[in-house]
Specification:
Layout (H helix, E strand, L loop, with lengths): L4 H21 L7 H28 L1 H4 L7 H28 L11 H25 L3 H15 L14 H6 L3 H13 L5 H25 L8
Length: about 230
Amino acid sequence: MLGLLWTLLNPAAFVFTYWLVFTYIIKIDIPNYATFLIPGYLAWNFTWNSAQEASRSMIESSYLITKIAFPAEILVLASVGVTLFEFLIALVLYLALAVVLGIPLYPVAGTLPILLLIHIFFTLGFSLICACGSVFFKDVPKLITIAGMILFFATPVFYPESLIPQQFAILFHMNPFAPFVACYHEVLYYGLLPGLALGLKVGLISLLFLLGGMRIFARFKPYFAEFD
C-alpha cells in the first residue's frame, strides 16, 4: 500500500535514529547535524546495498547463470540500477529537506552529477567483485553484511574526519569508501569543491575497482556454469 515509501523507510529510520542519538544523547558539535549525516549515509547505503543485492541475485538466479549463453552481468547491472534509483530518490528528498530547514545549497552542488558518475563506476566494480565471489562462496552476502557493519563505523559517515585519532589515520586512508563519503560531505554540507588530491583519489579508486571488477568477472564467468 505504501509503494515507494517502503524504499525510503529503512534509510529514513536509520538516519532518524542516528540523528536522535548523536544530537541529543551523544552530542557532536556539528551545526545542522542531520544535513551532515544524511549525505554520507545515503552514499554508503547505495554502495553497500548494491553489493549485497548483486551477490544475492547471483545466488537466487543460479538457474540462469549456469547457462553459459546468459549474460550474468545483467543481474549485477539490475541490482545496482535498483539501488541507484532508491539513492536518487533519497538524495532528492535530502535536498528538499535542506531547503525546508533553510540550509543553503551552494553552487558547488552543480558538480554532484560528476561525483555521482564516479561513485556509480566504483559501486559497479565493487558489486561485480562481490557478485563473482558469491557464485563460488554462498556465504558472501552474509560476509558483506558483517564487513559492512565494521567498515561503517570505520568510515566517517556520522562523524567528521577530524575526530579520527592520529594513530588510526593510516587505516582511514586505506579505506576505499572514506574518500567518497568525504566528497559528499564537502559538496553538500560544507559547500566546497573537493581538493585536487581528494578528487584524484576517488577517480583512481573508482577506475581501479571498475576495471578490476570487470576483469575478475570476465575471468571467472566461464566457470559459473559449474556451480549451482
